């Protein structure tokens, strides 16, 4: 999730009219539609939240905890809806962390195999 957010930022950050945003173009509605779309693709969109979620999942994993399966299912549903609405896009990459979270939950529920000592 962190890599997806970083990649998304790397693609869109050079396109962002940072000077105009900092000058207040978004507040005064002086920004054009491309500028507004780029804002929603970067700080106004999912990038910050995706990094935070990725950090929380990584921390949980390091502590031996598992993230509830509904997190993976929600990410999968969100990505599926986005792909349905806009077609094939970077949202297809969301299948990877969603599937990993779901798979981790399924394997954690299985009874562990008895290991001979």
Task: Pick out its properties.
mainly alpha; 2 domains; 7 helices; about 120 residues
Question: Can you tell me about this structure?
Answer:
The chain is mainly alpha-helical and 117 residues long. The protein has 2 domains: 1-63, no CATH class; 66-117, no CATH class. Helix content is 68%, strand content 0%. The protein is built from 7 helices and no strands. It has helices spanning 2-12, 18-23, 25-28, 33-41, 47-62, 69-86, 95-109. The longest helix has 18 residues, at 69-86. The radius of gyration is 19 Å and the shape is elongated. The N and C termini lie far apart (39 Å). 10% of the residues are buried. The model has no long low-confidence stretch (mean pLDDT 89).
What is the oligomeric state here? Answer: single chain
Low-confidence stretches: none
Order of helices and strands: HHHHHHH
Tally of individual helices: 7
Shape: elongated
CA-atom Rg in angstroms: 19 Å
Task: Describe the SSE topology.
Layout: H1 2-12, H2 18-23, H3 25-28, H4 33-41, H5 47-62, H6 69-86, H7 95-109
Helix pairs in contact: 1-5, 6-7
Condensed summary:
68% of the residues lie in helices and 0% in strands. By secondary structure, the chain is mainly α. The protein folds into two domains: 1-63, no CATH class; 66-117, no CATH class.
